Amino acid sequence: MVRIMALDVGDKRIGVALSDLMGWTAQGLETIERSNIKKDLQRIEEIINQHQVGKVVIGLPKNMNGTLGPQSEKVIEFTERLKKRINIECVFWDERLTTVAAERSLIEADMSRKKRKTVIDKVAATYILQNYLDSVSK
């Protein structure tokens, strides 16, 4: 069995989440502080190899009307670079409102603003992955 990994790609950080081996639940793994594209891709490749990842789900930040904006273009470009390094399937997943949902859950957990900033991307990646897993299990 292989795991599915989700990425929430931002300009400053990349949130990473992994599925369990059965593909039922998503858990946040880490937040990668972005430094340069080569190091970012290298870290993702290490995670893929370490956890036997068989598919990568990348959150695609669409506008509320469904169109793609500048951030979407950055994510698509990042994904194209990633695909050149790995030999597994990469799929996009509409991530509208996942960061909002992640922020809301962290506020409800009474987490400080400073602490939220360090985990929000990982939690958003978890939401992306769980939504994807729920959609394919139906």
UniProtKB/TrEMBL annotation:
Enumerate the Gene Ontology biological process terms. rRNA 5'-end processing
User: By its UniProt entry, which SMART domains does this protein fall under?
Assistant: YqgFc (SM00732)
Where in the cell is the protein located? Cytoplasm
User: Does Nucleotide-binding appear among the keywords?
Assistant: no
* Main EC class the enzyme belongs to: hydrolase
Q: Entry's InterPro entries?
A: RNaseH-like_sf, YqgF, YqgF/RNaseH-like_dom, YqgF/RNaseH-like_dom_sf
- A single Gene Ontology CC term: cytosol
Q: Which SUPFAM superfamilies match?
A: Ribonuclease H-like
Q: Which family does it belong to?
A: Belongs to the YqgF HJR family.
**Family matches, as HAMAP family:** Nuclease_YqgF (MF_00651)
Name assigned to this protein = Putative pre-16S rRNA nuclease
* Source species: Clostridium aceticum
